[in-house]
């Protein structure tokens, strides 16, 4: 849970923020109605993830509460009823994350959504590619204030090295003019690599060339920013691009997952499995199903059958988390692996032992499973699946609760 400090003298505003923050499962909040109360909380051992602070309080009418939270290094969002351009600029320069006016109810949602975005940012790595030390330091400071994990590179060549070493980088911001490899060439190179197809790439330049933004986009960038940029523009572009990418990932994930068991579905098994098949000459394919599953549905009902499938899938992912695991259909599951085949078969034996020793569903069922395995590389993945399936059929007709292996 993340503690949020709210410093606000208006009871109505505190009530609205309390309701919105209370609806966020990752947040809990501390409400303060004045500077003194906020100071008392900040001087304890309580750790605050962020603060929402009003500028004008009865005992701090000139923004002193904002100075207080910044002194305690708490990321601060100003929520105020008055918009003052010079004050806004001054506070942003001091390190405030954002300056939001209470001009409508949407403002309160904006504040809470911003805090949730900061929470998500904790797990996101960003690469800044910039040869100017000054510019790089400024961009990095903004990103760290937004709670990102920040990495740096001085040109495109170094950026590729960093991307290959840190495969979980989700966002890259690259300047155009750099030695060895410029920003556009860097973006082109990354987009040619399947590993970086989903990375958010944003171009950056102080050049007056109006066509440069189009060059970046055509090279594969998601967006382009011209230096110098406004604080809010930087935040909005970064957040909007990340949220769009996350939404696409959620849609894609939903399309690839089996809704009941929350493992991959048959379509994704074939799509990703084909890629794995061509990546290795030692692909292993296993097909399995739960023995006597129809009896569970017929005697205990489909609810019990669904619970059994869910729990069985959970054990599968526990033992084969580094492989491609999916529901093939009904009570039948498939595993596609490029790991060492001997190790895979040892893991399969351990998996079957755990299944035998577990009880499933609220009815404490004892179940077993039958498995067919194909370790011989064939002309296509489809043929390997068919071979594993035929061996599964043999296992079922050999007494069940056993493995039939095609070496």
Beta percentage is 15-25%
SSE pattern? EHEHEHEHEHEHEHEHEHEHHEHHEEHEHE
> What is the residue-mean pLDDT, rounded to a whole number?
92
The biggest beta sheet is recorded as:
5 strands, parallel
CATH fold description of the largest domain: Alpha-Beta Plaits
Low-confidence stretches: none
CATH class of the largest domain: Alpha Beta
Give the helix tally.
Answer: 15
Rg calculated over all Cα atoms: 28 Å
Shape: flat
CATH superfamily of the largest domain: Reverse transcriptase/Diguanylate cyclase domain
The counted number of beta strands is 15
Q: Give the number of domains.
A: 3
Instruction: Specify the CATH architecture of the largest domain.
Output: 2-Layer Sandwich
How far apart are the termini?
A: 50 Å
Structural class: alpha/beta
| Helical residues, percent | 40-55%
The strand line-up of the biggest sheet is: 2-1-3-4-5
Domain GGDEF: 281-407
Protein name: diguanylate cyclase
Organism: Rhodanobacter aciditrophus
Modified residues (4-aspartylphosphate): 54, 175
What does this structure look like?
The chain is of the alpha/beta class and 407 residues long. It folds into 3 domains: 2-117, Response regulator (Rossmann fold, 3-Layer(aba) Sandwich), CATH 3.40.50; 123-255, Rossmann fold (3-Layer(aba) Sandwich), CATH 3.40.50; 266-406, Alpha-Beta Plaits, CATH 3.30.70.270. It has 15 helices and 15 strands. It has helices at 11-22, 35-42, 64-71, 85-94, 105-121, 133-145, 156-165, 183-191, 212-219, 231-256, 266-279, 293-300, 302-319, 341-357, 381-396; strands at 2-7, 27-32, 50-53, 76-80, 98-101, 125-129, 149-153, 169-175, 200-205, 223-226, 284-290, 324-329, 332-337, 369-374, 403-406. Strands 2-1-3-4-5 form a 5-stranded parallel sheet, with helices on both faces. It has a 5-stranded parallel sheet with strand order 7-6-8-9-10, with helices on both faces. Helix 2 packs parallel to helix 3, helix 7 runs parallel beside helix 8 and helix 12 packs antiparallel against helix 13. It catalyses: 2 GTP = 3',3'-c-di-GMP + 2 diphosphate. Pfam families: GGDEF, Response_reg. One of its GO terms (molecular function) is diguanylate cyclase activity. Residues 281-407 form the GGDEF domain. This is diguanylate cyclase.
């Amino acid at each position: 849970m993340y503690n949020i400090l709210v410093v606000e003298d208006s009871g109505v505003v505190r009530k609205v923020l309390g309701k919105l923050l209370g609806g966020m499962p990752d947040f809990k909040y501390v409400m303060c109605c004045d500077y003194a109360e906020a100071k008392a909380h900040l001087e304890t051992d309580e750790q605050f993830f962020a603060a929402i602070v009003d500028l004008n309080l009865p005992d701090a009418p000139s923004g002193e509460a904002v100075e207080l939270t910044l002194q305690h290094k708490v990321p601060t969002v100003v929520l105020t009823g008055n918009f003052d351009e010079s004050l806004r600029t001054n506070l942003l320069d001091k390190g405030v994350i954002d300056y939001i006016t209470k001009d409508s109810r949407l403002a309160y949602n904006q504040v809470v959504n911003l805090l949730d975005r900061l929470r998500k940012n904790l797990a996101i790595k960003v690469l800044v590619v910039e040869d100017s030390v000054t510019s790089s330091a400024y961009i990095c400071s903004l990103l760290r204030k937004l709670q990102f994990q920040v990495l740096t590179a001085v040109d495109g060549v170094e950026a590729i090295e960093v991307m290959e070493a840190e495969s979980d980088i989700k966002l890259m911001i690259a300047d155009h003019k750099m030695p060895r490899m410029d920003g556009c060439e860097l973006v082109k190179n990354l987009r040619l690599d399947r590993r970086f197809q989903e990375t958010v790439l944003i171009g950056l330049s102080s050049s007056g060339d109006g066509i440069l933004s189009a060059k970046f986009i055509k090279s594969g960038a998601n967006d382009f920013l011209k230096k110098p940029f406004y604080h809010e523009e930087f935040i909005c572009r970064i957040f909007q691009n990340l949220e769009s990418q996350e939404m696409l990932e959620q849609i894609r994930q939903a399309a690839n997952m089996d809704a009941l068991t929350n493992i991959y579905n048959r379509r994704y098994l074939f799509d990703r499995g084909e890629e794995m098949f061509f990546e290795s000459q030692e692909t292993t394919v296993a097909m399995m199903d739960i023995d006597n599953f129809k009896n569970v549905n017929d005697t205990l009902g489909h609810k019990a059958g669904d619970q059994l499938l869910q729990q069985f899938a959970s054990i599968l992912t526990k033992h084969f988390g580094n492989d491609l695991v999916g529901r093939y259909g009904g009570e039948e599951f498939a595993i596609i692996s490029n790991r060492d085949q001997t190790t895979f078969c040892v893991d399969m034996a351990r998996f079957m032992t755990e299944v035998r020793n577990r009880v499933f569903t609220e009815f404490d069922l004892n179940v077993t499973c039958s498995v067919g395995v194909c370790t011989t590389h064939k002309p296509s993945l489809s043929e390997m699946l068919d071979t594993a399936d035929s061996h599964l059929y043999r296992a079922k007709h050999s007494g069940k609760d056993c493995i039939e292996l095609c070496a």
